[in-house]
Design goal:
Shape: elongated
Distance between the termini: 78 Å
Helix content: 40-55%
Number of strands: 5
Strand content: 5-15%
Largest sheet: 5 strands, mixed
Strand order of the largest sheet: 2-1-3-4-5
Structural class: alpha+beta
CATH superfamily of one domain: Glutaredoxin
CATH architecture of one domain: 3-Layer(aba) Sandwich
Order of helices and strands: HHHEHHEEEHEH
Length: 165
């Protein structure tokens, strides 16, 4: 009963406002202007650009291992630098994620780089300068920086791989 009274009172109030010909909107803001087709297209493009990471399969996945030992060793700064580099690159097909510890505390902060169709590579003892180099060389250009890795994928010659099949 009380709810009904409030609703009726609201309608009575708005009706009285209409009677006095005052331009009062419900939230105190001006009425929204009409959008053109061009405005809607621009909004769509901006939204797709901002949400593109959710809608594309990644060509690369970069995992910063942020367990307690990694955070203590500087993984937060590595993550911040990596996200900044990703933003500067303008690429939407690279996913940067945080994960738990790898269990190799002595080599933290660790970062795993996985490129599409290639074995993952784990980089050790990363800092902002090293992760910048890894991002530019490995993530963007596919060149592994071997002196920073823990695990390097073993590449088999094509003849060996075809004989085994």
């Amino acid at each position: 009963m009380f709810d009904t009274f409030l609703i009726l009172s609201y309608f009575d109030f708005t009706a009285k406002q209409d009677d006095t010909k005052k331009d009062i909107s419900y939230w105190g803001k001006q009425p929204m202007s009409k959008l053109t087709i061009e405005d809607l297209q621009r909004i769509k493009e901006e939204t797709l650009k901002l949400t593109g990471l959710r809608h594309q399969d990644p060509k690369a996945r970069v995992t910063v291992h942020m367990g307690d030992c990694g955070i203590e060793a500087g993984a937060r700064q590595v993550m911040k630098t990596l996200v900044k580099k990703l933003g500067e690159s303008g690429r939407h097909d690279i996913h940067v994620i945080a994960a738990d510890c790898l269990g190799m505390c002595e080599s933290e902060p660790n970062v795993t780089v996985e490129l599409e169709g290639r074995a993952p590579v784990v980089y050790q003892k990363m800092d902002p300068d090293k992760i910048s180099l890894v991002f530019e060389s490995h993530v963007l250009n596919g060149e592994i920086i071997e002196d920073q890795t823990i695990e390097i994928p073993v590449r088999q010659p094509e003849t060996q791989a075809s004989e085994e099949a």
